[in-house]
What does this fold into?
Amino acid sequence: MAMPGNGLQVVASHERAADAVRRRDYSVARGFASPWPWAVLTFALVASAGWPKTPPLIADSLAYRAMALGQFGNIGASITGRVLHPFFVHFVSRAAGLNIDQAFLAVALVTLALMIVTLAWILGYITGIGALVLPLLLTPVLVDDMFGLYYCQDLFYAALLSCFFVALIKGRTVLALILLFALYLARESTILLAFAWAVIAWFESDFFVVAACAALTFVGLFITRKFAALGLPNVHHTNEFVFLALKPPFDSLRNFFGIVLVPSEMRGKPGYSCTPFAIVHLPRLLSYGSTREFGICRFDPAGPLLTFTLWLSLFGIGPAVLWSLFKRTGRCMLVDSPQWLKLATIYGLLYFLIAPAVSEWLERDIGYGWPLFWIAVPALFLQYYPIVPPALVTGLILENLAACWIPYALIVRSGYQVSYLATALGVALAMQVSAAWTLIGYHHQGNVCGHVQ
It folds into this structure.
């Protein structure tokens, strides 16, 4: 049995399983094993599918563009702390002689290529099948919500995060810590990544990583708060920590229960255009900032329908595969896994589950859980399902693509109508059940939890 935290035997197990994949009777062709041609093809397909007809200057995009131009004074403080991406775009604009819009697109293309190449390398390393990068990444998350909204920092952040995991897999802890600091300057929610890494390191007695995560969290948040102070107060004119503390109850009620609360200062804004049927006046002790009252709108099923549909479709059949792995291994699924695999699993799962409680744009924020489904699930699947018939793999890959795109097309192209949302949820649920049933019925031989073969 491998000692928890060591990970060397598990890495060796992954490599032996990958070798078994290559040596099996129906051996994978060399073209399917090499990640590089598939990375190029994936980049070409994602870039062409998401190529903007006009610059996607919507929602937060305007704020990031203004930051790249050095115009912090008219942007909310919740965004102005995310400085690294706009600063890098500004640098590229000056260095390459491009206008700011051209620089945003150029940076998007470079970071898209970087993300795909790094993930192709990771998938090739942990599975021996580089071709997996195409069906895993050719999804609405990457096409529409990362590359398609390239003024936002989502794609830039994802590229940095993929490099972070490469550094961890290669055992370059110091480089990973440097990248963790860069991630803090790109997005404050990096605190979730640092917290998960510190907890894992604590249980593995890696106190250097624990101390480094704590120090980088302090420095990173200090710097981003300094830049945040350059921006405008939030819409409620309250303390930023109070604003962040109040987001979970407001967003959870809307996304999980279909109940929209409308503070007076938010009336008429996107997502708050419903007509309240009741007005609640806050007592002085409970009022905050400029908020003295809020309206309560009638139940809207669109919120919870969208949340559960995206949970069950944004990463294809990933949830069903994860469930089948957990059903086979129980709570000790990660006990012998290397640190990078534990972190990709726990961080991705936390973001995947927490996002609806803190998000007004679910497609983007649930998408931050990608390390779970694009790194951890393939690695764990290979560990516990080392010899899988090619027909089953092909069927799962095709189902994964269908599970991503069909519900997404129904909910987005139809304008988020409730009838289409309900249909999309039904399709997504049926595909998850089908994939889970297929895996349950597959008689396999693999690693028994707690043992490395």
About this structure: The mean pLDDT is 86. Residues 1-25+304-453 form one domain. Residues 14 and 126 are 6 Å apart (CA to CA).
